[in-house]
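Q: Got a minute? One more chain.
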Amino acid sequence: MRKAMIVWGGWPGHDPDLCASMIRGWLKAEGFEVRIETTTAAFADPAIHDLSLIIPIYTMSKIEKAEALNLCAAVQSGVGLAGHHGGMGDAFRDSVDYQFLCGGQWVAHPGNIIDYKVDVTKPDDPIMKGLQSFEHRSEQYYMHVDPANEVLATTTFTGEHASWIEGVVMPVVWKKRYGAGRVFYSSLGHRAYELDVPEIRTLMTRGMLWAARE
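A: Always. Here it is, folded:
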């Protein structure tokens, strides 16, 4: 049985406890044994090197240098990392080690909750296969991203809320390698109920399974 660890906490506005419960259920349905932790100290545990998958759900907050380095080392050795929205992409803003691992960092969501389109850019990728581009109402994340990411979906900014970014095409879903490990990220899912949007639930589940070490 593959083992996963979910670490949730930080800013409560992203429903980290509810997201952790939902994702735990999805992983258990896929045959994982799931460990739940609520402090960043879990990232320093040497035992995480034996996991198949780690899911951070920890918006903002701080991570100690030793915790970040142990997490990075675990993924570099082959442990998978997967997450969504601010729980992974706006966690630990002062840790460049963590940002290098994830492949991106949130910097803005102009207009806050708005209607926007998610464009599937790699429809033949197993994570996105069968999914169509879709309209979504939530925060449209503007991120600083790693050019090494393999982008699976994007969104285009209209400039309505920040005129200087009109036409900017921004990655929404990506996957990447980090040493021997696989990393998956989706910027979708501001609140827990959004994870039940069929397209979001599908790509998240597939992304976690892709990232997980066999």
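A: The chain is about 25% helix and 35% strand.
Q: Perfect, thanks.
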